[in-house]
Amino acid sequence: MLVKIPVGAKVIKLSKFRKATPEIVSLRTKENTRTNAVNVQPRTNQTDSLSEDIEQELEDREEEECEDDGFSYFHSPEVEEVLDEYGYFVGFTHYRHPDVALVIERTTNEVMEILKFVKNGSRELDNLTHLTEKDSPHNHAIRPIRSWTVEGGTMVSLPYAGSNVMDLKDITKNLWGVACQLFEAVNFLHENKIVHLDLKPENLMIPDSYGRLTIIDFEMSVRMLAGTFCRGRVGSEGYMAPEMVNGLYYDPFKADLFSCGVVIVKLCGKSRLSIDKEILLAIANCLINPEPTKRPTSLISNKHMFSQRFRPVLASV
Questions:
Q1: Among 116, 114, 124, 200, which Cα is nearest to 164's?
Q2: Residue 7 and residue 33: Cα distance in Å, rounded?
Q3: Where on the phi/psi map is residue 78: left (φ > 0), alpha (ψ -120 to 50), or beta?
């Protein structure tokens, strides 16, 4: 598979946008293994094996993460002082996500917020701030509540937005609504020149009984103009577009659309047979086309693509 780059198109190595190496979420679960162009060289074959030196580097990172459960970030005096003002404390961190912690209210023991440590050099907070300035009902990006400087980076307080979208109690009933929100959310990011590059169920939060979908974890996100091509593996195994996996130049916007398609397929896999499921699988098949030139150039807005009136049209997609 070859990717034809238009004459005059801008080509960027994605490592240009990475001043700090992102955390490795998981090395053993294929779906959760995140890689970045800074660490992983582009591949020209289709094997999924990592080179020995890269594999050793990732194993070293895993050992470091297991040794540090993240509490060193969150139990510093400057963090505890801020939390004390609100009557909060750090209740839980996960060894696979040492830079994220749940914040608990002291008197009720309820989860109130999420704390995330963003290393110096990361563009995550810049991109979130850029999106927060866009006051729109179509904006589903997580919105920081507050942030303050700590040693080595910035501590960001984020609202608790629910659970993994795959944990939704009745996916069949809410499948259409979830898909509408996902497409609306990604379309909004792209309209504002943000590519997420790590779209997967773990980064899509929603209340377990249904509600507003929220996109989280903009650690891999990049702000760029349409028509820019990139090279380098970024994201999570199982959700990366094939042209990215194979070390080819790729359109990052279309790479996001591929990830969206994979998410929809997984949601449909947990849904009972319905017209919604049939239509969404047809759309997903377009999004996950292995030939990027045959994928849509963008996600059509709700009012055109997902209204009841146009459902018969979608059946032929």
A1: 200
A2: 34
A3: alpha
Q: Which residues pair with 215 in a beta bridge?
A: 141, 204
Number of domain units in the chain? 2
Alpha-carbon Rg for the chain in angstroms: 20
- The H-or-E segment that residue 276 falls in is helix 275-287
Residue 148 lies in a domain: yes
Look at residues 201, 189, 195, 177 and name the one whose alpha carbon lies nearest to residue 136: 189
**Cβ-contact 198, 235 below 8 angstroms:** yes
The β-bridge partners of 100 are: 116
Instruction: Calculate the CA 315 to chain-centre distance.
Output: 28
Q: How far is CA 267 from CA 144, 182, 263, 264, 273, in A?
A: 28, 11, 6, 5, 12
Please report whether residue 26 resides in a domain. Answer: no
Per-residue pLDDT reduced to its tens digit, 167-202:
999 999 999 999 999 999 999 999 999 999 999 999
Q: Is the pLDDT of residue 24 over 80?
A: no
Per-residue pLDDT at 99 exceeds 80: yes
**Count of CB atoms within 10 A of residue 28's CB?**
8
Per-residue pLDDT at 96: 79
> Could you say which of 159, 184, 210 is where a domain stops?
159
Q: Alpha-carbon distance 150 to 154, whole Å?
A: 5
Q: Is residue 44 part of a domain?
A: no
Indicate the burial class of 258 (C-beta count within 10 angstroms; 0-12, 13-18, 19 or more).
Answer: buried
Q: Write down the pLDDT at residue 93.
A: 82
The answer to the question of residue 287 being in a domain is yes
The boundaries of the domain holding residue 147 are 68-159
Q: How far is CA 292 from CA 68, 97, 251, 255, in A?
A: 40, 32, 8, 8
Residue range 32-70, pLDDT digits in tens: 456 554 333 333 333 344 345 545 544 554 555 444 445
- Who's near 89: CB < 8 A, 6+ residues apart? 80, 83, 103, 104, 106
CATH code at position 83: 3.30.200.20
